[in-house]
Queue: 2 jobs
Job 1
Amino acid sequence: MYPVEQQIYGPILMEKWGEVEAARKLHRSLKPLMLATWVALPLKKGKPFLRPDELVKREVGLVRSASEDNVCCWDPRHLVMADDPARDAILLNFLLRQFVEYGCRVVPVASLRESYSRLSVMAEHSKRAGSGIAIRLKLEDLEEYDLLDTLLDSTGLTSADCMLLIDLGQREFAEHDEFAAALIRWVDALHERGNWAKIVVAATSYPLKNPAPDNGEVSRPRAEWLVWKWALELDPDFGNRATFGDFGADCEVKDFGSGGIPIPHIRYALENAWRIVRGIDFPSMRNVMRRAATAPQFMGRAFSAGDEFIADCASGVTENCGSASHWRFANMNHHITLALTALAQIYGVGIIERVAHNHEQPSLIGI
């Protein structure tokens, strides 16, 4: 199994430009602390399957750009590369070999009910490259111990060759203390079943629909983080048996082809909440950035590359405020930095303070 001991944060991220750029521009002291799971996007409907070289450019290129040579997970659940399962498995094997060729330390992700053709390819890759595999468990899978044992038996892998990715998805946490106690029981029960290399618990309570009104703002709790902190209150050693993870803004979206006009907004993560600041159209994003950057909760231009982008848009340093992909980059780079900074404090890990780029920046006073 690739080394996964030092990573303290396991977000589940889409292979969209904004999230890839957010990871690419993380401060150098933070990158080795993150064990990201990159979820490959499906091919566009009605389009022909990609050639092998096109798949390499799309998948290996994105992951290499985002994670460099740091260990990460790669989840191809949505990426069907051929109609024929045998051909799809051949292409999966080719891609996994290309990840190694280009210096990407990728742990492939399999579901508990993964097809035999794909699972066998992932298992052989694990043995060949020493990568291990990640087994993704949904909430309804957490007590399917027989299926977990069958997966290990069928692949010839041991629990030490595998990490578990508990994907709780998008949900409301009505009772933080009760859910935290249940989470501890689930994780401990899984540890009793094997010597897993790592267990990551990922969830999000961010609403599927943008909750802010036009030209308004709203706050929503980061309930998954509150549950995690409550679990640490109940059992201070829990953080040594499981790793916190969360999601980007829309990692639970199932309809990838829905399209639509992006909503102009900034989703700014705070210690225990999100502050969502919304505009009405693309030109209104300058004012959105100003409202975000002049709020007392703003953490400063030097906090992250995302904060620097927000501040520069607000002050007029940038010619415009970019596209929805740029807003996603700012949201996620700030979010990941905040999560890693908070977790580093919990685990006693030292990080280097970021220094912002210098610009001839107009003052925000009076804006």
Job 2
Amino acid sequence: MRMTVSFAAMTAACGLLSACGGASAGGNANAPTPADAAGGGGDALVGGWTEADACKTLDQGVVAAVAGQAVTKAETKMNHQADGDDPVSRSQCHYLLADGRTVILSTRVEMPVDNTDGPAKFEAQEKSMNMVPEAVAGVGRGAYWTPGDMPHLDFWLGKHQTAFFQFKGDASTITLKKGDEAWAKDLAIKLSHKIGG
């Protein structure tokens, strides 16, 4: 089983904090223009992100609406605001679905680093490890789907933002069950559009 390399590896270590909410379930009122998503939005964050709180960036009501089932719990598992020692803001939110599966959103904001070449670097890194990520059109400045027992969608927005959706199975297993990968990919793409992807 392959765990996450790249962005997920950078966001794996986390502490359990309180449940969280955020924007209205109707979606994101600050959706980016095509130029923003392509990197034309300057240094401003696109997609209405809350830098250090993934649960506020993507409200659990939105996840429930897109997934077609209730979210019984949304928990922030990491929440770091950029500071003098660490210029990267990062956060992770776990959404527990009614059927027991978990959707994980990780967000990362690097200021003033310009990560315009992030997609190309990611693809090169994956290929160096003999992995073949699948390019996904129509999501942010670039997006890749990596299949497996714990599949994930990595994508990039503007000049400074990276996001990552990963999925876990129910309480009986940490991995998704056979046949769930197509569901996970479809859900990840739809959710990415809710935060600017």
